[in-house]
Amino acid sequence: MPLGSPDQKNLGYYIALAQVGMEMVVPIGIGAVLDYYFKWTPWGAVTGAVFGLIGGISHLVALANKENASDSSKRDRPS
């Protein structure tokens, strides 16, 4: 166990990354449930995978842009 308290910014970043993972997995699960109930096999899961991939990658790009913007504002700030 670390002795100090965790950095709140890093903790928020890791929670956002976990959210991206869930955004990629949950649509596949929903598609699998729809496959089961409506006998669409495998199209519900495939569609869920596509939507999850698109949503997850777009969220990762937004996180990367936000991180780059905060890094550049730190560099531009006079010491």
Describe what this molecule looks like in 3D.
The protein is mainly α and 79 residues long. The protein has one domain (11-71). It has helices at 8-38, 43-76. It is elongated and about 60 Å long. The mean pLDDT is 89.
Q: What integer is the average pLDDT? A: 89
- Largest sheet entry: none
Poorly predicted ranges (pLDDT <50, ≥5 residues)? none
Helix/strand structural class: mainly alpha
Describe the structure concisely for a colleague.
The chain has 79 residues and is mainly alpha-helical. It has helices spanning 8-38, 43-76.
Q: What structural keywords apply?
A:
single chain, 79 residues, mainly alpha, elongated
List the helices and strands and how they pair.
Blueprint: H1 8-38, H2 43-76
